[in-house]
Design goal:
Largest interface: A-B, 32 and 32 residues
Oligomer: homotetramer
CATH class of the largest domain in chain A: Alpha Beta
Helix content of chain A: 40-55%
CATH topology of the largest domain in chain A: Beta-lactamase
CATH superfamily of the largest domain in chain A: DD-peptidase/beta-lactamase superfamily
Mean pLDDT of chain A: 95
Number of domains of chain A: 2
Low-confidence stretches of chain A: none
Number of helices of chain A: 14
Structural class of chain A: alpha+beta
Radius of gyration of chain A: 18 Å
Order of helices and strands of chain A: HHEEEHHHHHHHHEHHHEEEH
Strand content of chain A: 5-15%
């Protein structure tokens, strides 16, 4: 296990690169993020934990929620039903692209792009919109082993007001029968789940849960091995937006990034890794987080390939 | 290590499914393939080998040559140069699609689609077209440890005559500066390399070479660990055409298919697997080969995720 | 001027072809249309009028409203403002296509496709949604010289309920700043305007209004010559969906079709022509109406080219 | 008929705008054009002729050859055969775009874009490549009534060497059966025809020929009325590249531009207009020529709509 001092040095070594990135600025709540924030946390199966920098700083989970709600959706629905509505293929297009809904399948290419994730949100069970979202929040509390998680109301409202591109994709999918329920409800759950506040520490915990194929640190199996592997394989092929192929080459471990600046990552069977750095590259991935993961993967030979 | 009897039973169990597929029919040499042919070979690091069915039947390597010539191109060129001309991202489009050359980058998305592979072929060094192709052939002889490999003249001529879609992509890339040398020469190398005759046995050998990160069974390092891992990661994200994402979910190991019916596959650090079955699914992957790999992966828990 | 007997014979001659078409079936109100209905009305500048068949049968105006509200929008806004938000170019894509909003301009290609027409609807002035639509209805009453026009409530509700593809495009345009006001209000006006009930007789009147460059039969100038010519040129390049080019070749006069089965057509300076036949070809144009216009254009050498 | 003095003043009035444009620079022969060159010639049915500026300056015909060879192809083939291979619809894409060949029809959208025009070139009859091109040249000599026309060898060679985008489209169409004969021969004819040297005077003559529906000034009918009207309608919907819709609105007469700086234009039944100005706008149309035609159309109320 890498120790915290080394992590601290890697943080220092990559700090400058963060300045090249840009924080997400489509809503005020994200725009105010501090490009200097930078943190990492790693946990392994022997209860070892290392960390450095702003690993306890809260930020919104954003797209990192996508693999998580997919697990809940698989608990709630037949897997075949889900993948009759959503594909499993990387797209080669940006996360908010709509054109493939028209030109290729009618179904979104995978659950890691916005269209696919909104379709997944529409499949969460519950008697009301509130109950559905609460089930999402409870699920993430359980796998992060953090009962205090909550969502940021300001960011949620910001997402909702500016979310017309997502709304456009949702109505397109409603038209094609991909979304069966109420469109605005699915969007509401989606916007709320994106606004959940999380830390690099929480992400490391979730990463370890996935590394252990769906078992929490206190031994509760929450999802099946099959589901955990399914999610991890989609993280490899589609997790880093339209930069997933290059990330697989350069880092070589399952990961999912969000425009809030977090990256959830893990080494199968071994460890969970959470990083945070809100300065993003052109594809929407944390520029510092990416660099950190690349260094650590090279240092510890973590690539799964 | 799985034994040959189990492989034989898996062959029997999946034989029926081959009938649902279609052999490639764009040239006579491929059209005459026998849908009933079906074979597999597995080799591991302890010199164990298992096989069943038509594992010694020769067929054309087709797209399986793509990851192989990429390794030679990396020996011949700076890696940065290659990836300044070709991307590392899955496309979401069929292997012979041209539209992304126009609408997204000018560069082909990855070296596993036709456009990218033709660009790679244009980067092989040599004083003449003959020498260039001979270097390709020699390289594949070396990593398959089979000095008797040759290409099928009939199929090569067929590819050349019917290859106007590939020719179209090549001239498009010439126009955009992706291909710097002679277009027809690059195409000629590409058509010849696709016509190399190979067996499932050979593919298992090449798979083992990749599993061992670029070292042959007699201990010669041919490519760097970095190059081997790069190729394997691209096989996972882009190796099974626009069905790579689903293959990662269902089988979970690096693989590259060809329309000749072969699949090169491997488990990192452990074994190489070659399969053959010319009946293809709609995406161009061997339907029987895919099913065999899925069964074996589940049986032996081979998924890398 | 062609007489009614000839028109009657042309109706008979083309009646069979209507059977090859299909009525629009996305909402019940359209689905119930009678494929046998077929009518035409022609009016010229000398107060001559000819007609045959179901020229007084009411049907919904649908896309024929697009050139009409464009004239009202030009009265309400600076022309430059409108065309800073909407292009003037034919698209080559179906009327309900969304992909060009993403891949080319952010602005819709022209005001004759759904996206462009919805953007036009969002530019109609008024203190309330009701007032805006009433101004649309009043404008069409004026240029059709029919004070009794109204819209079909059932069809309006059907359009609104099933209109998620249009809703998707509207939110996409809202996101890109093409639509500045309220999206649902713009859609509501659009769905209502599409549901206005009209006859071939009314369309002939409107055609004559355009033929006379914006002057009614009782001599009132409603729009400028420039506006009338602008609308007529867009009818030629974009009026018959993605079949406009062929229609220009075969018929050669400005026309705008709707999936309700109507075609508004005219010969500049000479006559207005309205046709009705709800059986549609694959592009959404009245199959009988198209044939009638082709025959009449050939018979009277009406092509403007 | 407008007199030469007015034309001269319009030339002066629009001379400045030419400076905003850019001459085509993909081959040296075009790059050397003088942005200051600017000329116009108008001929009518009463043997009146007006001109101003560089109306006798030679330049390459480029895309203006497209409507001309279409007429020859219609003489050489069944019209239905031609339009089974090539559409009649505007595309909304640039003239050298390939993506619609893949995503929509397999056939090129119309004969005015490069792909369509190359397909037309492949349909010209002749026993040899030379004879085919000579027939093209003779046809243009006849309708321009200029027996001295020839092509520019330097520009032809430049087009041929740099023409890989066109070559790419041609092989794509060969693959799909749109081009039936030899690809390089079709391209050779295409590159030669684009290199024919012409003047604004010649274009006015050709324009008058089209205005008179296919009859030369000495009374010879060369093509049918139907063919002439077909070509003129395609000029309106597709003649000014992806700016055809706006040109129809602003100028309103059939026209075809070329990147050599010429525009062939005409008023049906009345006059032919040729303009020359090698400074191009972003879509490839002569910026000065466009402005001149707009002014003249407004001055004389020439719009056909």
């Amino acid at each position: 296990m890498i120790n915290s001092d080394i992590l601290y040095n890697l943080i220092l070594a990559n700090k400058e690169r963060c300045k090249e990135g840009k924080v997400a600025d489509y809503i005020p709540g994200l725009k105010n993020a501090n490009k200097e924030n930078f943190g990492i946390c790693i946990m392994d199966n022997n209860n070892k934990i290392s960390y450095a920098g702003d690993y306890e700083k809260k930020f919104t989970i954003q797209s990192i929620s996508k693999p998580l709600i997919l697990m809940l959706a698989i608990l709630d629905n037949e897997e075949d039903y889900i993948f009759s509505k959503i594909g499993m293929e990387p797209t080669g297009d940006p996360f908010n692209s709509i054109k493939k809904l028209e030109t290729s399948f009618s179904k979104p290419f995978n659950p890691m792009i916005n269209a696919g994730a909104i379709a997944v949100s529409s499949m969460i069970k519950g008697d009301s919109s509130e109950e559905k979202f609460n089930r999402v929040l409870d699920f993430i509390k359980k796998i992060s082993e953090n009962p205090n998680l909550d969502y940021d109301r300001d960011i949620y409202h910001g997402e909702k007001i500016t979310g017309n591109r997502n709304r456009s994709m949702a109505y397109f999918m409603k038209n094609d029968g991909i979304i069966e329920g109420d469109v605005e409800e699915a969007l509401d759950i989606y916007f709320k789940q994106c606004s959940i506040l999380i830390t690099a520490f929480d992400l490391a915990k979730i990463g370890l849960f996935l590394a252990n194929n769906g078992v929490t640190s206190y031994g509760e199996r929450v999802v099946s091995i099959h589901t955990a592997k399914l999610v991890k394989s989609l993280m490899v092929t589609c997790g880093m937006y339209d930069g997933s192929g290059e990330f697989a080459v350069k880092v070589g471990i399952p990961a999912k990034s969000g425009v809030g600046g977090g990256i959830l990552s893990l080494v199968p069977g071994k460890m969970g890794i959470g990083v945070y750095g809100p300065a993003l590259d052109l594809k929407g991935n944390s520029i510092g987080g990416y660099a950190l993961l690349e260094d650590i993967s090279n240092l510890l030979s973590l690539s799964i390939f």
